[in-house]
Amino acid sequence: MSKLITSDPQILGGAAIITGTRLPVVVVLQRLKEGFTIDEIHDQYPHVSTKTFAGVLEELAEPYVPKAQAL
């Protein structure tokens, strides 16, 4: 799996972003908290695919999934 979340001090002060974009991961999480679906978030940020948004969520969840149940 490629790394979909990166951080670079030269981009948005080092905030975690979706690789290849300037979209902070926290924005995606805020939208989800507000009740938006991945498709609705994609409508707001069409340059990021729904597959990428889903992959970002998997990458965020990865540390919390027991190794025997890896996503």
Summarize the structure.
This protein is mostly helical and 71 residues long.
**How large is the radius of gyration?**
13 Å
Structural class: mainly alpha
**What's the total number of strands?**
2
Which range does the strand content fall in? 5-15%
Uncertain stretches: none
What can you see in these coordinates?
- With 71 residues, the chain is mainly α.
- The protein has one domain: Winged helix-like DNA-binding domain superfamily/Winged helix DNA-binding domain (Arc Repressor Mutant, subunit A, Orthogonal Bundle), CATH 1.10.10.
- It has helices at 25-33, 38-44, 50-61, and strands at residues 5-6, 17-18.
- It has a two-stranded antiparallel sheet.
- The protein is globular.
- It starts with a strand and ends in a 10-residue tail after the last helix.
- The model has no long low-confidence stretch (mean pLDDT 92).
Q: What keywords describe this structure?
A:
two-stranded antiparallel sheet, 3 helices, 71 residues, Arc Repressor Mutant, subunit A, mainly alpha
Secondary structure elements and their pairing?
Layout: E1 5-6, E2 17-18, H1 25-33, H2 38-44, H3 50-61
Antiparallel strand pairs: 1-2
